[in-house]
Amino acid sequence: MLPPAPPGVVPYIAGYSEEALLNPRIVRHLFFPGVAYADETPHDRDSFGMLWVRPTLLPRRRRGEPRLREVHPYRQRRAMANMMCQVCTRPPEDLDAPLLFLMRDTGGPVKEGERTASPPVCVPCAGISIQLCHALRRGHYVAARVEHAPAWGVAGLVYDPDTFTPHPGKELERVEYGTERALWTVAARAVVALYGVTPVDLEEEFAHLGTDRLEGEFARVAGLVGAGR
Ligand SMILES: [Zn+2]
Question: Which residues pair with 35 in a beta bridge?
Answer without folding.
Answer: 28
